[in-house]
Specification:
The chain is of the alpha/beta class and 382 residues long. It is built from 13 helices and 9 strands.
Length: 382
Amino acid sequence: MDDVPAGPASAGPGRPSLSVVVPVHNGGEDFGRCLRRLRESSWAYDELLVVDDGSTDGSGELAARHGAAVLAHGRPLGPAAARNLGAEAASGDLIFFLDADVAVHPDAIGRGMARFLADPGLTALFGSYDDRPTAPGLVSRFRNLLHHYVHQRGDFVDDARPAHTFWTGCGMIRRAEFREFGGFDPRLYARPSIEDIELGYRLTRAGRRIVLARDVLATHMKRWTLFDMVRTDVFRRGVPWMLLMKRSGTVETDLNVQLGQKLSVAATGGLLLATAATALTPWAGPAALGCAAAVGLLNKDLYRYLARRRGAAFAAGSFPLHLVYFVCCGASVVIALARWHVVDRRLRATADGRVDRGGRPIPTPAWRRLARRLQRWTTRSG
């Protein structure tokens, strides 16, 4: 936006105050860079609150040296609880949530604040990662560039478009409305998961407006491994998000749940089945190639983008990783639906005829134990 302040600016007549909240658990060098980049911001925020979520590497002391007010959990309680603690202590009219492994661009906060100044009815906004991830390696660069690509697409007007989710990697929200809606749910999301998406659903179902602003950018410093990728996509995002959609009755069609991505998941499933059947029928080989070609065609714009950014070899190397991503998406659907229709359905039924004071069925001890185990597996893995 053109009206972003060129130099430091803070709360004053007509300007809302801003609190920055950063949860951290053993942030290391990336957290140090996060704090340094915050100090370079063109918008002078009013307070920086760092919530040390049981760190053992001195992250809290590092934050204090950078002038942050440090709140602490004696043991790790997860980012949802940590952000809630920071928001409870915040005094600003707006809260800017930032992850400890994210370095904001100097103008990012100013661009976000300018939108709130121009639109009093805006409840929240979030940005995206830039296309210059710092972590080396194919997996890290693919993951970060995939995020950037997905969040930069769509029908934008003045670099913004409506969204019904929220994102705390780099996102702003009005403090009063955050508190009105109870913040994040640390009981349901005790580990890094989709606590921000769930809050976004609650806000937009109540008629509050959220926008994705593609000019609010930050650099992601996370180092990804293949194991991290699978664990995150299945247990920390895929399964919880599918369960959230079932509970809320939402049919998701935005960002990485668009129709083309759903078709890609189906084509990847066909590829796996056809590959497994190659010893049984001569038609399996052509079918597998056809499914692979379908994935390529459905995502050709992404691969072209990756080729422009990192070269043709990088784009080709990203294709197998993209297939793994689609396998994780498919596995998440299967696991979530199994839990929803088998375990959760039994819990919602009158298992042994007993009900609590609110008329809800009380499950039998065996089903209660099974439900707890599956919940830990699907929403708190790792």
